[in-house]
C-alpha cells in the first residue's frame, strides 16, 4: 500500500447515546458517550487483517503485542489473521510475543523507554499512539535484533498538535484528541473491561 488508509472520525463527531448499548452497571455513571461501537472495531479489524496478509507475502510473522492497552486489539486482529490463514490460498506461520512499555517523562526532550517483563506494579504504559515518541523508541530497540521487516499496526491514532508526524503502517481509526477508554484502554486501570470504546468525562472522581 502506498499510504495507510484509515477510518477518520471527525472532530464534530459526538458518538452515540450510551443508553443504546449495554454498558456494565459499575461504569454507567462514569461514561459519557459511546464513541466507537464494538462491532465497528471488529469490522475494521477484519479489514486490517486482510490488508496485512496481502502485504506480508510469505514471511513468517512475529506478532508483538504492546501491553496492556493493545491486548484486545491484538487478540482480535490475530483471530482474523488466523481465519484468513485457515481459509485462504496461502498461509504464514505466526508466533506471538508481548512487551510492556514504561515511558519516563523527565526533563529531557527525548523520551526514554525501557521494555519491562517483570516489575509490573510500577508501570505506566502508553495505550494509544499520540505523539509517536514511545513507538519510535520501541522501534529503535527492536532494530537491535535486526528483523527483516517491522510493521506497526495501531487501532487508534489521535489527531493532536503534539504529534511530530509519526504514522503507523496500518491504522484502524484516526480519532479527535479526546480521552477514550474501553476495549483494553484504561483510565487509571479502569475500563479495560468494557467492549465499546467510549469516552469519558473527567468528573468521574470514583476512578481517580
Ligand atoms: N485512553 C487511554 N489511554 C491512553 C489514551 C486514551 O485516550 N491516550 C494515551 N493513553
Ligand atoms: Mg493507560
TrEMBL record:
Residues 40-187 form the Phosphoribosyltransferase domain. Keywords: Cytoplasm, Glycosyltransferase, Magnesium, Metal-binding, Nucleotide-binding, Purine salvage, Transferase. Its EC number is 2.4.2.8. Converts guanine to guanosine monophosphate, and hypoxanthine to inosine monophosphate. Transfers the 5-phosphoribosyl group from 5-phosphoribosylpyrophosphate onto the purine. Plays a central role in the generation of purine nucleotides through the purine salvage pathway. Pathway: Purine metabolism; IMP biosynthesis via salvage pathway; IMP from hypoxanthine: step 1/1. Pfam families: Pribosyltran. PANTHER family: HYPOXANTHINE-GUANINE PHOSPHORIBOSYLTRANSFERASE (PTHR43340:SF6). Gene3D superfamilies: 3.40.50.2020. GO terms for cellular component: cytosol. NCBIfam families: HGPRTase. Its cofactor is Mg(2+). It comes from the Eukaryota. InterPro entries: HGPRT (IPR050408), Hxn_phspho_trans (IPR005904), PRTase-like (IPR029057), PRTase_dom (IPR000836). It comes from Buteo japonicus. The keyword Phosphoprotein does not apply. One of its GO terms (molecular function) is nucleotide binding. This is Hypoxanthine phosphoribosyltransferase. Belongs to the purine/pyrimidine phosphoribosyltransferase family. It is found in: Cytoplasm. Homotetramer. It catalyses: IMP + diphosphate = hypoxanthine + 5-phospho-alpha-D-ribose 1-diphosphate; GMP + diphosphate = guanine + 5-phospho-alpha-D-ribose 1-diphosphate. Its main location: cytoplasm. One of its GO terms (biological process) is hypoxanthine metabolic process.
Amino acid at each position: 500500500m502506498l499510504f495507510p488508509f484509515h477510518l477518520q472520525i471527525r472532530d464534530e463527531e459526538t458518538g452515540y447515546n450510551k443508553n443504546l448499548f449495554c454498558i456494565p452497571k459499575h461504569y454507567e455513571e462514569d461514561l459519557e458517550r459511546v464513541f466507537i461501537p464494538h462491532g465497528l472495531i471488529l469490522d475494521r479489524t477484519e479489514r486490517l487483517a486482510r490488508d496485512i496478509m496481502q502485504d506480508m507475502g510469505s514471511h513468517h510473522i512475529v506478532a508483538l503485542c504492546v501491553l496492556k492497552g493493545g491486548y484486545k486489539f491484538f487478540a482480535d486482529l490475530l483471530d482474523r489473521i488466523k481465519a484468513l490463514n485457515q481459509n485462504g490460498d496461502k498461509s504464514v506461520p505466526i508466533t506471538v510475543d508481548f512487551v510492556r512499555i514504561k515511558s519516563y517523562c523527565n526533563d529531557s526532550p527525548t523520551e526514554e523507554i525501557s521494555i519491562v517483563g517483570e516489575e509490573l506494579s510500577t508501570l505506566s504504559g502508553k495505550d494509544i499512539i499520540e505523539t509517536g515518541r514511545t513507538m519510535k523508541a520501541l522501534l529503535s530497540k527492536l532494530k537491535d535484533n535486526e528483523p527483516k521487516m517491522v510493521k506497526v499496526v495501531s487501532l487508534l491514532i489521535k489527531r493532536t498538535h503534539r504529534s511530530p508526524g509519526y504514522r503507523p503502517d496500518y491504522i484502524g481509526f484516526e480519532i479527535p484528541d479526546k480521552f477514550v477508554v474501553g476495549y483494553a484502554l484504561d483510565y487509571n486501570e479502569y475500563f479495560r473491561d468494557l467492549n465499546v470504546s467510549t469516552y469519558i468525562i473527567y468528573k468521574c472522581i470514583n476512578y481517580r
